[in-house]
Q: What sequence folds into this?
């Protein structure tokens, strides 16, 4: 069995591991995935945005950008035992391959202060000529998360969300992994429009809140 590190993944490799179904963007569907912000959440979001307006985000290093522009919005989506996390180690074994590495961030349950399998994975695009493709790295992280969730709850279709950020722009992906117990699972993906981290910040947090709420409702309903 081959083990693949997320940062090594390419389109060619991913297609050898799973049957990949990538669907066109349907903005109207993503428009429905929103939960309004409370007055307190809007105030906190305004504080985040105010620190970014006059910053040179394009040249800001990745760690600083994560701390200022990305992670604070993940925190705004926290509900109950679902928390925002950074530096999330993931390792999952399918029948024919293994995936491992570390995701930049996630929204995931906490139990006793320890992270449980995540429901939303965030990948921050790295800079440089030899930097890995954030899209296929994210695919691998989502596949790993789906497998870990399946081991906890063997639903034949595992829904998992992902997001990759490029500077302060956000692009979301909804994934469904099926035929998990076969040598070549099926991975179906739907893409969101690209959101600007400042001008579309409220829409981003509304979407994050929707994803968390949907997950909590699924847990509650069994």
A:
């Amino acid at each position: 069995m081959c083990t693949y590190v997320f940062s090594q993944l390419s389109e060619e490799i991913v297609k050898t591991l799973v049957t990949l179904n990538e669907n066109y963007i349907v903005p109207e569907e993503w428009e429905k995935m929103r939960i309004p912000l409370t007055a307190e959440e809007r105030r906190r979001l305004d504080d985040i945005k105010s620190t970014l307006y006059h910053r040179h985000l394009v040249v800001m290093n990745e760690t600083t950008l994560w701390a200022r522009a990305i992670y604070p919005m993940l925190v705004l989506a926290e509900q109950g035992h679902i928390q925002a996390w950074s530096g999330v180690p993931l390792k999952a074994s399918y029948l024919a391959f293994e995936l491992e590495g570390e995701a930049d961030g996630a929204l995931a349950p906490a139990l006793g202060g320890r992270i449980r399998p995540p429901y939303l994975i965030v990948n921050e695009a790295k800079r440089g000529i030899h930097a890995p493709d954030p899209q296929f790295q994210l695919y691998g992280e989502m596949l790993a998360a789906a497998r870990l969730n399946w081991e906890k709850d063997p639903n034949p279709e595992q829904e998992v969300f992902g997001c990759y950020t490029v500077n302060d722009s956000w692009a979301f992906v909804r994934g469904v992994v099926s035929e998990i117990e076969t040598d070549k699972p099926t991975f179906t993906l739907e893409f969101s429009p690209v959101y600007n981290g400042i001008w579309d910040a409220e829409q981003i947090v509304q979407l994050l809140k929707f994803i968390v709420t949907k997950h909590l409702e699924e847990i509650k309903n069994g």
Summary: The chain has one domain: 2-220. The CA atoms of residues 154 and 218 lie 14 Å apart. The first helix runs from residue 11 to 17. Strands lie at 2-5, 19-23, 82-93, 97-111, 114-115, 120-124, 157-166, 169-178, 186-196.
